[in-house]
Design goal:
Shape: globular
Low-confidence stretches: 234-238, 338-342
Number of strands: 22
Number of helices: 16
Mean pLDDT: 93
Largest sheet: 10 strands, mixed
Structural class: alpha/beta
Radius of gyration: 23 Å
Distance between the termini: 42 Å
Length: 535
């Protein structure tokens, strides 16, 4: 991946996409693959906002059936099949277990009806098996940490999971391979207008300080929760809600690596317990957010809520505050208007046009971003002119997808990594994260065997991945690496030793002197997610 700020200066573009989250990435990729001239700019780093703060799932959203949002669920399940097909290295099936207790808000018959409908909406050609049913004894045997008081049985169903920041990065890489000019750490200072029409944006390189005007036939403001402010905060943008979600990272659970869909007893909300990178994610909370988008703190009461509810369902786990290994939070921009449960607020994707030449996507889900971007580019052809090629992102393998049999490829790549001294767990995750570029990472280890060592014993990432991120993945800061190329910040409390080790690995690649290396450590530690009391 090559950062291309100077290329922004050369001529006008058909499409300027502002925002390097999953929606901006898929929009840029789709348009570039059709032959449009595309520029994609991001003020910090790829997936730096909401797109690295999801529940790490590719799913239809079983809970949305309760609000009769059948279209959204069908859309998500269709995309689940598509994403598994085009990115089999990055999207993996996972089984969810739903334990049922006496007095649950949703009865067993209603849950079974919902699961039958979920399977029907998915249709054929799905990467997961249909739902199943279990009695209480089967659940106790498989998951001995589950609370058994009032346990009457349960269900299971299939969905998929991924690393949201990595998949976003790979879509950006695919956009660049398709011809898009992509630049991270490039902020839009202001939109350029000709009369009432937006014709591009003034962009500043936050690394060099250089500026350039980027002209485009159409500008897509895909900056997520930051988009309304960039559009001038005009009332014509329409009503929207900012909804905050919080997740905790806990130690891994013993036994089968299944996830759980649970219902909070205190308020009836649904939340997940999900295995991820040998850890366990608990989340999410949902709450209206009106604070500063620069300060997405995880508060103590939010963490206590998730811990209390998880421990109620998994009593033998007996998690305490001391067991929390990391945390993260994010904000989504959804169409406003619901006075009831936040889970009832529409996740449907819409495009608002606050000014001629300026479009702003609102709503949607990580899972459906590819299909939504496809529809957006379809609709934009009136502004962009006819495309040279038809839509193809639903067929084109993603940038780092290996060819051939995925199982055989994965076994061979993991064996190669283990042969170079990478431990078994780290090898499996390395192959999943890097796909067809795995051998390029392993070449670094062949040249320097100490790079096979883990960055930290508690995280399944090796030192070679830090070097690779700085040299090949457009990572320009220590936070780029420790938060998004590798989700280290989500799995550890602030750790100066890890920060320094990673910075020293990056320094020769990026030409940092001792002062810059120290500055990068200080900056990264200041951005490390922590839990704080609510003021």
């Amino acid at each position: 991946m090559e950062r291309q700020f100077e290329a922004l200066r050369h001529g006008a573009y058909d499409l300027l996409v502002i925002g390097g989250g999953i929606y901006g990435a898929w929009t840029a990729y789709d348009a570039a693959l059709r032959g449009y001239r595309v520029a994609l700019v991001e003020k910090t780093d790829w997936a730096a906002g909401t797109s690295s703060a999801s529940s790490k799932l590719i799913h239809g959203g079983l809970r949305y059936l309760e609000h009769f949002n059948f279209g959204l669920v069908h859309h998500g399940l269709t995309e689940r099949a598509t994403l598994t097909r085009i990115a089999p290295h990055a999207v993996d099936p996972i089984r969810f277990v739903i334990p049922k207790y006496d007095g649950d808000r949703v009865s067993s018959w209603k849950m079974r009806l919902g699961l039958v409908l979920y399977d029907l909406l998915a249709g054929k050609g799905q990467p997961v098996a249909p739902h199943d049913r279990f009695n209480a004894d089967e659940l106790r045997s498989s998951f001995p940490y589950l609370s058994t008081d009032g346990l009457i049985g349960g269900f299971s169903y299939g969905d998929c999971q991924e690393d949201d920041a990595r998949v976003t990065l790979e879509v950006v890489a695919a956009a660049q391979m398709a011809g898009a000019v992509v630049v991270n750490h490039a902020a839009v200072e202001e939109l350029i207008r000709l009369d009432d029409r937006v014709i591009g944006a003034q962009v500043v390189d936050r690394i060099s300080g250089n500026r350039t005007a980027v002209k485009a036939r159409l500008t897509i403001n895909a900056a997520g929760p930051w988009a309304p402010a960039l559009a001038g905060g005009r009332p014509t943008v329409g009503a929207y809600k900012l909804i905050k979600g919080v997740h905790l990272m806990m130690p891994g659970l013993p036994g089968p690596k299944d996830a759980f869909l649970l219902t909070a007893r205190s308020d009836g909300r649904v939340f997940f317990v999900i295995p991820w990178y040998d850890h366990t994610i608990i989340g999410t909370t949902e709450s209206d957010y009106e604070g500063d988008l620069k300060d997405l703190t995880v508060y103590e009461d939010e963490a206590e809520y998730l811990l209390d509810e998880a421990n109620r369902a998994m009593k033998a786990a007996n998690w305490t505050r001391a067991d929390i290994r990391g945390c993260f939070s994010g904000v989504r921009t959804l169409m406003g208007g619901s006075d009831g449960s936040l889970s009832a607020v529409s996740r449907d994707f819409q495009v608002r046009k606050p000014a001629p030449g300026l479009w702003m996507p609102i709503g949607g889900k990580y899972t459906t971003a590819r299909g939504d971007a496809e529809e957006l580019v379809d609709a934009a052809r009136g502004d962009l002119g006819p495309a040279r090629r038809s839509r193809r992102t639903h067929q084109q393998p993603l940038a780092w997808a290996p060819s051939g049999d995925i199982g055989a490829w994965r076994a061979e790549a993991e064996s190669d990594a283990r042969g170079l001294g990478v431990d078994e767990s780290a090898a499996a995750w390395l192959v999943k994260r890097h796909g067809s570029r795995t051998d390029a990472v392993l070449d670094l280890i062949r040249a320097e065997p100490t790079l096979a060592e883990r960055l930290h014993a508690q995280t399944p990432f090796v030192r070679a991945e830090v070097v690779f991120a700085a040299s090949e993945e457009m990572a320009l800061t220590l936070a780029d690496v420790l938060r998004r190329r590798l989700p280290v910040m989500l799995m550890l409390p602030p750790d100066r030793a890890v920060a320094r080790l990673a910075a020293e690995l990056m320094a020769p690649v990026l030409g940092w002197d001792k002062a810059e290396t120290e500055s990068q450590c200080v900056d990264a530690l200041s951005l490390w997610p922590t839990i704080a009391p609510r003021s």
